[in-house]
Design a protein that fits this description.
The termini are far apart. The chain is built from 9 helices and 14 strands. The protein is about 35% helix and about 25% strand. The protein is globular, with a radius of gyration of 19 Å.
Length: about 325
C-alpha cells in the first residue's frame, strides 16, 4: 500500500515510526511546505518522491492512502482534496475547527466511499482502554472525570521544543482529545450543562488556558483544564468511581493505592492506531474512529466555543 504523508513535523515522525512497523506499507510521496525539510524527511523515511504540491501528489494513481499531519486549519481542505482524489485518509486531530466542517468532511468520505479515520489516539492507550472496558462492563461506576493537559507554548514551539510557523488551537486540538476521552470512557454521546471559559489571551497566540465542565450520562461530572502556560508537560486523567479511583498519568494507569494497573505505554505510540487504519482499508470496512464516531465530540466543542465567547462578552 503506497502512502502519501502530508507534513514533516513532530507528529509526522511518530506516524512514520508506526507505519514502518506495518507490513506492506510503502512510503511513496511526502508533501511539505518547504523544500529543504521536505527533502530531509523524505530521505530519512525512504519516500520515493517529495513535493510542495499536494494536488500533484494526489494525482499520482499509485497513492492509495494519505496521512494528514498538517496545521489545524489545513485539515479540512487537504482532507477534502484527498477524498475527492479517491484516496483513503488518516487525519490528525482535529477533524476540523468547527462542527459544520466536521460534518462536511465526514459526509464527503461517505459520498466517495473512502475510509476516513481520525487520530483520537487516546482511544488506543492500554490504560484508558482498561478504564473504558470496566465502565462498559458495569465493573466501574463513575462519579467524576477530571482531566488536565498542559505544555509550555509561550514561544510557540512544537512538543519537542522546535519553533513552529503556525499557532495551535488549544480548545479544538488538545481539547478534542480530552472531551473525546470523557465521552468515550463514559459512553456518553450528548453531554449536558456544558460551560467553557478562556483565560487571558496571549498577545500573539490567542487562547492559552481553558476550563471546561459538563455533565455526562448518569450524572457523572466532568472537569477539563488545559494550559499552554504550564512549566512542564502534563497529561493526566482522574476517574473517581464507586469501586475505586483510577488515575492515568502520561501513559500509566494506577489504582487508588498507587499500584500500577496497566504499565506504561507512550502517549505518542501510534502503532495500533495506524495499523487499524491500514487494516480497515484492506478489509474494506469502517475504521474504529470514523468521522461519525467523533461528531459528538465536535458538537460538544462547538457548544464550548460558543459558551466561552459568550462568557467573554458578558464578563461572566
Amino acid at each position: 500500500m503506497n502512502l502519501c504523508m502530508v507534513g514533516y513535523g513532530a507528529i509526522a515522525e511518530e506516524h512514520m515510526k508506526a507505519f514502518s512497523k506495518i507490513d506492506g506499507v510503502q512510503p511513496h510521496v511526502l508533501v511539505g511546505r518547504r523544500q529543504d525539510p521536505s527533502a530531509e524527511f523524505a530521505g530519512k523515511w525512504g519516500f520515493k518522491h517529495h513535493t510542495l504540491d499536494l494536488h500533484a501528489a494526489l494525482a499520482d494513481d499509485q497513492v492509495d492512502a494519505v496521512a494528514i499531519t498538517s496545521p489545524n486549519n489545513q485539515h479540512v481542505p487537504q482532507a477534502q482534496a484527498a477524498l475527492e482524489a479517491g484516496k483513503h485518509v488518516l487525519l490528525e486531530i482535529p477533524i476540523a475547527l468547527c462542527l459544520d466542517e466536521s460534518l462536511k468532511v465526514t459526509e464527503l468520505s461517505r459520498a466517495v466511499d473512502k475510509r476516513l479515520m481520525i487520530c483520537h489516539t487516546m482511544r488506543y492507550m492500554p490504560g484508558l482502554i482498561e478504564v473504558q472496558r470496566r465502565v462498559a462492563e458495569g465493573r466501574f461506576h463513575l462519579y467524576q472525570f477530571i482531566a488536565c493537559f498542559g505544555i509550555l507554548r509561550r514561544d510557540n514551539t512544537t512538543m519537542h521544543g522546535t519553533p513552529r510557523s503556525w499557532t495551535d488551537n488549544i480548545l479544538w486540538h488538545h481539547g478534542a482529545h480530552l472531551v473525546d476521552l470523557a465521552l468515550w470512557t463514559s459512553g456518553t454521546t450528548k453531554p449536558t450543562n456544558i460551560d467553557c471559559r478562556f483565560g487571558a489571551p496571549h498577545p500573539k497566540q490567542g487562547v492559552m488556558d481553558v476550563s471546561l465542565t459538563m455533565t455526562l450520562d448518569r450524572g457523572v461530572l466532568a472537569t477539563i483544564t488545559e494550559s499552554y502556560n504550564i512549566s512542564q508537560w502534563r497529561w493526566r486523567a482522574l476517574f473517581i468511581g464507586h469501586e475505586d479511583t483510577l488515575e492515568f498519568d502520561a501513559g500509566t494507569l494506577y489504582d487508588g493505592g498507587g499500584n500500577v494497573i496497566q504499565s506504561h505505554q507512550s502517549t505518542l505510540d501510534l502503532t495500533d492506531q495506524d495499523a487499524e487504519f491500514i487494516n480497515a482499508i484492506r478489509e474494506q470496512r469502517d475504521p474504529a474512529i470514523s468521522g461519525e464516531e467523533v461528531l459528538p465530540t465536535m458538537r460538544t466543542l462547538q457548544v464550548a466555543q460558543q459558551c466561552a465567547e459568550r462568557n467573554d462578552m458578558t464578563g461572566n
